Amino acid sequence: MSKRLIKVAVALLAGVSVNAVVIAQEMGEVTVQASRVVKKTIGRTSSGVPIQDISLSYGVSTAGLDLSSSAGAAALKKRVTDAANAACKELGRQYPDASTTDAECVKNATDKAMVKVNDLVATAQKGK
């Protein structure tokens, strides 16, 4: 009888663990989109409007983070900031004549992504 009880307990624990992984996967990722305004025209739309904005997007995973905790939320915010820094640095390398500074690029990209981060954190904390 006790062996049967142990098997049931292990099965229940495994089911809870799988549910936690599924919930974490449903949260997905945050997209960090960095953009720069380039001084030269790189093309035109079909209606003749010049295209001068360049952007680069990085996905930031929430995997392994407990967003209901302050440590998990802070770790996600750091990941987003790091991704924004990397994207803006790459854009600056590719387009050194851009009129947007690295600091402006990082701030804009981070601000946009933090809207999604705050939504994910709020949702996780409500479910706590």
What does this structure look like?
- Strands 1-4 form a two-stranded antiparallel sheet.
- The chain is of the alpha+beta class and 128 residues long.
- It has one domain.
- Strand 2 (43-44) and strand 3 form a beta hairpin.
- The protein has helices at 2-27, 70-94, 102-126, and strands spanning 29-37, 43-44, 50-51, 53-61.
- The chain has 3 helices and 4 strands; from the N terminus they run H-E-E-E-E-H-H.
- The radius of gyration is 21 Å and the shape is elongated.
- Helix 2 packs antiparallel against helix 3.
- Residues 1-25 have low confidence and may be disordered.
**Structural class by sheet pairing and helices:** alpha+beta
Assembly level: single chain
Count of extended strands: 4
Strand content: 15-25%
What is the radius of gyration computed over CA atoms, rounded to a whole number of angstroms? 21 Å
Distance between the termini: 35 Å
Give a short summary of the structure.
This protein has 128 residues and is an alpha+beta fold.
Characteristic key phrases:
128 residues; disordered N terminus; 3 helices; alpha+beta; two-stranded antiparallel sheet
